[in-house]
Fold these 4 entries.
Entry 1:
Amino acid sequence: MARGTVVFGASSMGALRAAELHRFGMIGVGAIFRAYRDGRLEGDDEVALLHATEGLDWAPLTVPMVEVRATLAAACRAGLIEPAAARRVRAAVREIYFGDRDWPMMENACLAEGLLDAGTFRRLAAMHVPLKRQDALLCLAAAIAWTEPSRPCPPPPDTCFIRKLAEDVRMRA
C-alpha cells in the first residue's frame, strides 16, 4: 500500500485487516468490514469457521458468529422471533466453540435451554444469511469496478511487530 498497490479486504480476515488498515489506504468492503471498523465486532472468532477440502468445493462445515448474528437479525425483521429471544439465542450459540458451531449443535443448545422450539429453530436455520459470501462477492465487484489510479499512502506506524517482521524477512533473504 505504501508503494501504491490498491488492496481490498472483506468477508473474513480481510475485513478485519481492512478495519485495522483503512486509515492507511486499504479499502474495506461489506457489512463485516463496517462492523469491525465501527467497533461493533472485535474478535477474529466472529468470522472463524471450518470448511471442507477442495474436493468438496471448500464448503463451510460450521457457522461463523457474524452469520448467526445476521440470521437472527433477519429472523427478527421477519417476525419469526422477538429481539429478546434473539439475544438469548446469540448468547447461547456464542458459547459453542467455533469448530463445533453448526446448525445441529446450535439446535441442540437452543432446545436444551428452551430458547426455541424445533420448528422455529428449523425456520431460523432455513433463513441462514451467508454474510461472508455476500461480502466477498461485493468485494470482488468493487475490485473489478475500481477505476481510480493507485496512489501511495503513508506507511504503517513503526512498531516492534513490524520491525520484527522486517528482520525476519531480511534473515530469510
Note: The longest helix spans residues 131-145.
Entry 2:
Amino acid sequence: MTLAGVQEKLPVFVDEGGAISIQVDGTPSTHILKPDTKRLAGSVENEAFCLALARACGLETAEATIGVTGRRRYLRVKRYDRFTDPQGEIRRLHQEDLCQLTGHFPSQKYERSSTERGVTLKMMFDAISDLVSPAERLKLLDAVIFNVLICNSDPDAKNYSVLIGAAGSTKLAPLYDLMCAAVYRQVDQSLPQGIAGRVDASELRRADWLALAGEIGLSGASTVRRVEELTERVSAACEDAAPQIDGMAGDPARVLEKITHYIQKRCRRIRAQSRG
C-alpha cells in the first residue's frame, strides 16, 4: 500500500473494460482501492454511504463503488485529479491539501496535534480566500458543517484539498475520506480543528457558528441558516442513501442502520442547538 493515511490504500489503473492493474513506468493511476479492515468493521459501506449522502445534499464528492474479491470488500474510488487529453492520454492534475497550502507539515494537520500549534479553521479559510477564491469559502463551510453532521471526527487539514489547473486556475477539490466515526467507540470523537474553541461537535450551538462566521469573514446569519438547511437535507437524505449502498453489495457488517441512527441524532441535536 503506497498512499498516505490511516487506512490502507492502493493506487491502481482501471481500463475501459473494468480490469484492475498495478500501473508501471510512470503510468497515472485512475482509481484508489481502500480495502476493509477488522479494526473498523463496515468501513467500506460507511465511506460509500457518507459519499453518497454528501452528493445527495448537493456537495461535490469523489465517485466510489463497492467491490468484492474473495472474502475482501473494498471501496473503489475514481480519482478526480485525472483527465484525458485530446490524444486520449490520461494526465494528472496538480493537487495540494490544506496542510501544504497553509505551509504546514503533515504532523500539524490537527490543530492540537503537535508541540507547535497545528492548522486551524481560520488558517484554512484564509488560505482558500487568498490563494483560491473568496467564493470557495462557502464550499469549505458546507464541507465543515457536513462533517459535523455525519459525526466525522477526522476531517483534518489533509482531508481538504485544492486542484490546480495547467493555466493556474484553482478550485476546492471534491470531498473524500468521509466517514461516520460515531459507530466506532475506539476512535477519538473530537474535532481535528476546533469551532469557536469547541472540539466536541455535539455541543456546538448557535453562538459557536456565529463566532466561526465572524472569524472567517462570512455572514453570521447566513452561516446559521446554512447549518439549519444542511441538517434538514442530511437527515432526510439518509433514508435514500442506505438502501442505495445496501444495493451495491449488501451490508454484511450491518453498519448502515447504525450510521443512519447516529447521523440523524446528530442532525436533530445540531438543529435544535442552532436555534437556541
Note: The longest helix spans residues 220-249.
Entry 3:
Amino acid sequence: MATTLRWLGHGTWSIDTGKQKILLDPFLNDSPTAPVKADSVEADFVLVSHGHFDHVADAASVAIRTGATVVTNFEICEWLAKQGVKNTQPMNLGGGIDLPFGRVAMTLAHHSSVMPDGVYGGNPGGFLLTLGDKKIYFACDTALFLDMKVIGEAGLDVAVLPIGDRFTMGPADAVEATKLLAPKRVLPAHYNTWPPIEQDANAWAARVKAETKAEPIVLEPGGTIEL
C-alpha cells in the first residue's frame, strides 16, 4: 500500500503508511484552515517540531485519546508528560531513531521555540523521515539555511517547505531552499492561515517549476498525495 501524505492546514500533516498513522504538528481545533478537528484524527505517532501553539496545541489531547507516542525534543517531551501524555520518544537536533514505521531524524531549523505557557521549548527542528525506500523532509518552521544542501544529499522524494514569510521563509527563499534540497517533489505549507502570512502558492509553484527540477504540488487543506 502506498504511503499517503495529507495536508491538514498550516503546518499540520498526516502520514498514513498503511500500517501506521503519523501526525505532524497538530494544530486543528483553533486553526481557521483545518478541515478536521482534533477529536476526529487517528495517530500511532505524533511528531512535534517545536513549542509554538500553532504546532503543539492539540498534541496532548490527541496523544492521550489515541495512546500515540509523541516524538519531539526532550524539553517538549517533559512538558507533554506534565499534560498527561504517557508515551514519548525524546530526541534532539542531529539525532535519529528507528520506529515501527521507519526512521526519524531531527534536523536543524532556524526559528524559536517556547511552549504556550511560556516554558522553554528546547531547540526547534525539522524532520527527515525514511519510510521504506522513500524519504520525506519536513522543514517545519525555519529560515533558509545552507545546510539544506546536506539534507538534500539523502535523496529526497518529497520536501515540505514553509512559504508564509514573516515568521518563516517566504516564497523566494523557499525557491532557493528547493534548489539546495533538490527533491523530486516539493509542497508548500505554513501560509494563508491568517492575513499576515497570506501568499500566492500558485505563483510560488510557477517559480519552482521554472527555476528548479522539482515538481511543485499545491494542495488545498484536506488534499493528499501518494508517495
Note: The domain at 4-220 is CATH 3.60.15.10 (Metallo-beta-lactamase; Chain A).
Entry 4:
Amino acid sequence: MRYSYLSHLECPKCGERHAADRIQGLCGCGSPLLARYDLQALKQDGGSPTMWSGRPKGLWRYHELLPASSADHVLTLGEGGAPFLPTARLGQALGTPDLWIEEEGLNPTGTFKARGAAVGVARARELGIKRVALPTAGNAGGAWAAYGAAAGIEVGVAMPADAPDLTKRECTAYGAKVVLVNGLIGDAGKIVARSAKEDGWFDAATLKEPYRIEGKKTMGLEIFDAFAGDKAPDVVVYPCGGGVGLIGIWKAVQELQALGWWKGPAPRMVAVQSATCAPIVKAYEERAKESQVWQGADTIAAGIRIPKALGDFLVLRAIYESEGCAVAVPDSEIRGMMRQMASLEGVFACPEGAAAACGVQRLRAQGWIKPGERVLIVNTGNGLKYADLVDANPPLVPEGGKL
C-alpha cells in the first residue's frame, strides 16, 4: 500500500484540477483548492478501517488520507488523538443527556490549530517552502510558529493589536516574526498578502493553501474511529470563524462514505457564531450560497471574529448537504458557559468551545435538537489561554480561618 493516496487538487467552484506535486495557492478563479485522494486505489490495495486500529493514536494514524508522501515528511509534536468525553451533567443541564465533548484543548499549543499546522507545515517543508506567513486571531499563529520552529521554516504572523496577549507572547517565543495591526483579521490578511507579493513569503492564510484543512479533517476521522461499532453523533456542533474545521469534518465524512466505511447516517453539521459577528448565520437564514461582510464584528471569542470567511461557501455547502444549521449566541452566555462547563465537567473550554455549548442549549430549546439525539461539541481550545474571561475574586481569610 502507498503511504498516501493523494491524487490531485481540485477547485470546488470551477472544477479545475491542479497538480499536487508543486506549490499551489488559490485556483485561478479565486477559490480555495481541496486535496483529492485515489479512494478506489486505496480500496483495491486492501484499505479498510481496521488498518488504523493497531496504530498509535495521533493525527498521522490516518496517513493514507493525508498529503505527506512518506513517513520521512511527517512532522509531529504529538497532535491529534483528542479524547471524546461523555458529559452527562452538562448534558442534563442543557437538555441533551447524550452529550459529548471532543477535547481539542489537549493538543500542542493548546488548540485544534495544531492539526492544521502539523499538516500544512509538513507539506510546505516537503514542497521546499522556506518562509510562510499568515494572518491570525492568535491561536493559528501560535501553532504555525511552533511547527515552523520544529521544521526549520521561518514564520511570519500578522494579528490584530487586540488579540490575546498570551498568543502574541506565544508566537514570539517560538521565534516567529510578529506584527500587529489596528483592525481585524482581514486587515492582517492584507499585510500578509502584500508581504507575499513583494517579499517572497508563502501566503498560508486560511484556505489560501490546500493542506491546513487536511489536518483539521482528522477530527472527522477521529469521530468515525471513536464511535466505530456504536452510534455516531447525530449532530456535530462547531464554533465557526473561518470554518476550516467544519469543512474538514464534513470532508472526512464524505471520503469515508465514498469508501463505503461510514455506514450509518451522516451527522448534521452546526455552525455556531457570536450574535455580534454572525455572517454565516445570516447567510444560512437567507439560504444564501455565500455570506456578506459583517460590519462592526466584535466578540470575546476572538477565534470566531471573522467578518467574512474565504471558505464561507464551503461551510454553507456542508451545512446544507448535511441538513444542519447555523445559530448565533450572545457573548454574555458564552462567558457564563465557560464556568458552567468547567464546574460541571472539569473541562475548561475556550470561549469558542463555550459558544458551541451555548448553541446546543439554544437548539435544544428550539426543538431542533431532539431528545435522545447524540450531540458532539467540538471544544477547539484550552480555556487557560483565556483565563482572564473568568472573574475570580476569592476572599482573603485571616490566619486560622476556614473555607
Note: DSSP finds 13 helices and 13 strands in the chain.
